Amino acid sequence: MKYIIVGLGNFGASLAEKLTAQGNEVIGIDTSMSKVDTFKEKISHTICMDATDEFTVAGLPLKDTDIVIIAIGEDQGSNIMVTAIFKNLEVKRLISRAINPLHEKVLKALGVDEIVYPEQETAERWAKKLCMKNVVDSYELGEDYSIIEANVPEEHIGQTIQEVRFRENFNLLVLTTIRKKEVKSILGKTKTESKVQGVATPDFMLEQDDILVLYGSNKDLEKFLKMKTE
């Protein structure tokens, strides 16, 4: 996978380092030459440039980039301007950092694909979400083990938990599953809610939109989810 990360503060730099370490190609951008120098050996590529300059941004390899992440956190104005520029240049997938609820509303109005909340989410968590196929969320339990929420892989739809044989084949434990259901409000309107299904049983049938809550080593989780290499 190929990424562009704008803003090499604590969150942006940490995410760029982790994605690079996992074999991805990352372009890290910042206006500070000292930050660019600091991380040039830890990130695939680092560039000192002003990302609020649309002409300069247009010269980046945007068509070859899978995901652009705007990690600027110190200056909301710059964050919004840079986000708008990348959105106008029609990048494949755009993720931006929100500082507060108002900032979040502005980013949503710009049409970003996803919003990051670094004060609540770690770079390690986002690295898993970006690099592991089908991951919805993750929770680190030390350096080597995690609990993750993941979409059911296509090849296992229609199978029971027993048929997949998570422990035998993948050395993973299914803690529970989450299923989306249509419910009606007291006003008669229909909405979708996610409901935890309780302790996973061997005969539970996996459906297309189900979410698995899995526990295991990071290595085994990555193997099961077929880590993205492109």
Structure description:
It is a single chain. With 230 residues, the protein is an alpha/beta fold. It has 2 domains: 2-127, Rossmann fold (3-Layer(aba) Sandwich); 134-225, Regulator of K+ conductance, C-terminal domain (Alpha-Beta Plaits, 2-Layer Sandwich). It is 32% helix and 30% strand. It is built from 9 helices and 11 strands. Strands 3-2-1-4-5-6 form a 6-stranded parallel beta sheet, sandwiched between helices. Strands 7-8-11-9-10 form a 5-stranded antiparallel beta sheet. A hairpin with a 3-residue loop joins strand 7 and strand 8 (145-151). The chain is globular, with a radius of gyration of 20 Å. The N and C termini lie close together (5 Å).
Provide the fold topology.
Layout: E1 2-6, H1 10-21, E2 25-30, H2 33-39, E3 45-48, H3 54-58, E4 67-70, H4 76-88, E5 94-97, H5 101-110, E6 114-116, H6 123-131, E7 135-141, E8 145-151, H7 161-164, H8 166-170, E9 173-184, E10 190-199, E11 211-217, H9 218-225
Parallel strand pairs: 1-2, 1-4, 2-3, 4-5, 5-6
Antiparallel strand pairs: 7-8, 8-11, 9-10, 9-11
Helix pairs in contact: 1-6, 4-5
Query: Going across the major beta sheet, what is the strand order?
Result: 3-2-1-4-5-6
Q: What is the CA-CA span between the terminal residues?
A: 5 Å
Helix content: 25-40%
Rg computed from alpha carbons, rounded to a whole number of angstroms? 20 Å
> What is the averaged pLDDT score?
82
CATH topology of the largest domain: Rossmann fold
The ordered H/E elements are EHEHEHEHEHEHEEHHEEEH
Helix and strand content put the structural class at alpha/beta
Q: Find the CATH superfamily of the largest domain.
A: NAD(P)-binding Rossmann-like Domain
Main β sheet profile: 6 strands, parallel
